[in-house]
Design a protein that fits this description.
This protein folds into 2 domains: 354 residues, no CATH class; 89 residues, no CATH class. The protein contains 15 helices and 6 strands. The chain is 55% helix and 4% strand. Helix 4 packs across helix 15. It has a 3-stranded antiparallel beta sheet, with no helix packed on it. It is mainly alpha-helical. This is Acyltransferase 3 domain-containing protein. It holds the Pfam family Acyl_transf_3. Keywords: Membrane, Transmembrane, Transmembrane helix.
């Protein structure tokens, strides 16, 4: 999945962020192209669940005329998640970034599990399966992929959450690795080879402990996350386009090996081409009608909540709509409307406030403080303990002064340098795409004068 960290507004081609809707838009400079990709993938998920999977699980639902029988949308969301994870981790201290991912994903997920269970108890048609409290607990702990025969899903869409958590933890491990001379792209190839090499044992070995390891940790879809990171590496110029294309093609081949369905693989490959276009090409704001842009941005901002809440509750709504005489198309619209309603509720009532509150607690616990306007560090542990060097800055473009920013990649050389680095605003306000370090940053406490360079993006 995809999800969703607030960093500076930098064009996605030169770096962006990962995770849920709000943060990823901030990370990519609110590029409309990424919002379109996210919303399109989400609509594919809803289309697949409403027209194919729901009638398969609930035979009393009327057959669909335009059924999408290929699970493409969720796979593409995992690719997008990999892209933004690779971009965002370069703009924050890795541990800080990782905790931010957890704060974004888990509270909304837990709230969605409880909300779905409660509404299932209240509104599910007679004869439909409804979760017991033990099932709710197992879902909160994400036990389904470890023992699916014992722990049924409260909402089957949630299968991507542990895959993202494992992948984010892998990104953290790579960033904190002691063997930094090993290129990151070599580790991408290693992860892909590891997944494929273990596939025969998963399919033919029959070992339940091994299946729990392979499925429970989400290795069977790790190639999608690798593909997203590879697209970011190409877009940011870290690897050549030929090398990146070879890595993405290998990821597509791994997907075919896992799903054994050529049509699904072709759909994922086509979606990857669209993602590449969003990453390396111009923004699509000149192509998408201006009247549609606010709706697309709004849906992208709540996309994680929609994803978490649409399927089980949408199935229930579709069955009630059918009983009331509505046809398949209206039922599909009903699932989408259900996801939008409850997704918006989870986003504004849980995801965003929980993320802000937990980030404040984390910063208070670790002693990270916003620097004051004079550039001096706040109280508590030094910000350098978190790998972040605070510096004072004033916007040179006509936008007024900014109190302070955090230089996410501090420069420790004693010699004078000029290095363009992205920044994250400590306080809300205008954002800048990059800064030019005119003097060296010797310590976390020293304030350095910076000049903004490059194009400013909106927050």
């Amino acid at each position: 999945m995809f999800v969703p960290v607030p960093v500076s507004g930098v064009r996605a081609g030169s770096g962006a962020a990962s995770g849920g809707g709000t943060a990823s838009r901030a990370a990519s400079g609110r590029r409309l192209s990424w919002d379109v990709v996210r919303v399109a993938a989400l609509l594919l998920v809803v289309w697949f669940h409403s027209t194919w999977q729901a009638p398969l699980w609930h035979a009393e639902l009327a057959p669909r005329t335009f059924a999408l029988g290929y699970p493409v949308g969720a796979s593409l969301l995992l690719v997008v998640s990999g892209y933004f994870a690779a971009a965002a981790v370069r703009r924050q201290e890795p541990w800080r970034w990782w905790w931010g991912r957890l704060f974004r994903l888990l509270p909304a997920f837990w709230a969605a599990v409880l909300l779905t269970a409660f509404l299932s108890w209240e509104a599910a048609p007679v004869g439909w399966w409804v979760p017991a409290w033990s099932d709710v607990g197992a879902n909160v702990l994400m036990l389904w992929q470890w023992k699916p025969q014992l722990y049924p899903y409260v909402d089957a869409s949630h299968w991507t959450i542990p895959i993202q958590l494992v992948a984010f933890t892998g990104v953290l491990a790579v960033c904190r690795r002691p063997w930094r001379r090993v290129p990151g792209v070599a580790l991408l190839w290693a992860a892909l080879v590891f997944e494929v090499a273990l596939w025969p044992e998963r399919v033919y070995g029959g070992s339940e402990p091994f299946r729990m390891f392979y499925d429970g940790l989400g290795w069977y879809r790790m190639h999608l996350f690798v593909a997203g990171v590879a697209v970011y590496a190409v877009a940011s110029g870290r690897i050549g386009r030929a090398h990146g294309a070879l890595l993405v093609v290998a990821c597509v081949a791994a997907h075919q090996l896992q799903v054994l369905d050529a049509t699904t693989t072709v759909g994922v490959a086509a979606g990857l081409l669209v993602i590449v276009a969003a990453a390396v090409g111009p923004d699509w704001d000149g192509v998408v009608p201006s009247a549609a842009q606010p709706v697309i941005r709004w849906l992208a901002g709540i996309s994680y909540g929609v994803y978490l809440t649409h399927q089980t509750l949408g199935d229930i709504v579709m069955r009630h709509l059918q009983d009331a005489g509505f046809g398949p198309f209206a039922q599909t619209v009903g699932m989408l409307a259900t996801g939008v309603l409850f997704g918006w509720l989870v986003t504004v009532a849980v995801e965003r406030p929980a993320y802000r509150a937990l980030c404040r607690l984390r910063d208070r616990w670790t002693g990270v403080r916003a620097v004051r306007a004079d550039g001096s560090a706040g109280t508590g542990r030094a910000a350098a303990s978190a790998g972040v060097a605070p510096v004072a800055v004033t916007l040179v473009e006509p936008a007024g002064p900014v109190a302070a920013v955090t230089l996410v990649k501090p420069v420790r050389s004693a010699a004078a340098v000029e290095v363009v680095k992205p920044v994250r605003l400590v306080k809300p306000g205008e954002t800048a795409g990059s800064v030019k370090l005119v003097k060296p940053a010797r310590s976390a406490e020293s304030a350095r004068r910076l000049e903004l360079s490059g194009r400013r993006e909106s927050p």
